[in-house]
Each structure stands twice: as structure tokens, then as C-alpha cells.
Please model this.
Amino acid sequence: MKDTGFFAEFRKFISRGNVLDMAVGIAAGAAFTAIINSFVNDIINPIIGLLIGGVDFSQLQWVIKPATETTAEVAIRYGVFINSIISFIIISFALFLMVKAFNKLAEANRKKAEEEARKAPATPPAPPADVQLLTEIRDLLKNRN
Model:
């Protein structure tokens, strides 16, 4: 079987070290999402619901067709959508703070490296080619005698 095309490209992608980092990031993101969803559903929404008159967002819906003995209710559950929007905003804000902290750390490291480079003694520039040639000739003549 020829090892080219889509599957060869996929195998090359999988064999990179970044795939493991990406998998760890996805797993951590899923756990983080579960925490944020619990935070929104169990802490934020009850507080907001209490402030606006005891409304539970997850129960907000617009019933299109009521349930009957043989069919289930057909409804647009916009309260769940509101919960998702709140979760998205909180997750986005948390990621913003993380990226901002990472950028600040990277900037501090860059400035530190620049400062160290400035403090390091500068090597003198190489002499011009004619001076180098004359120095070599002098050294050769010195070694002959």
C-alpha cells in the first residue's frame, strides 16, 4: 500500500509531539467546561433568577405544541440557550485572562533577555579584510625567523 496522500499526512500529523499537548489541552478544556457549566447552572443562574423574581433559566421555554397522551411536548427552550450564553461569556473571560497572563509573562521574559543581551560585553567588530591579510603576513614572517 502506497504511503501518500491523506493518510500519510494524517500519520505525520499524529507523530508530532504537539498532538499529545493538544489532547491534554482538550481534556483539560472539557473538565474546565464542566466546572464552568456547574458554576453557571448551580451558582450564577439561581442568583440571577432570585434577582429577577425566582425564574429558573433552564425552565424558560416557549411551548409550540403541548404534550398529549401519545406525543411529547414541542418547545423552544430558550432558557437553556441563555445558560449557554452565560457559560460562553465566563469561559471566554477566563481564557482572556489566561492569554493575557501568558502574554505578560512572555513579554517579561523577552525584556529580560534583551536586558541581558545589552549587559553582555559586545565583541569588537572584525578588522577589515586588508588589515586581516597584513596581520596574517606579519605572523607568517614572524614564524619564519
User: Anything to note?
Assistant: Strands lie at 62-65, 74-76. Residues 61 and 78 are 5 Å apart (CA to CA). The chain has a mean pLDDT of 84.
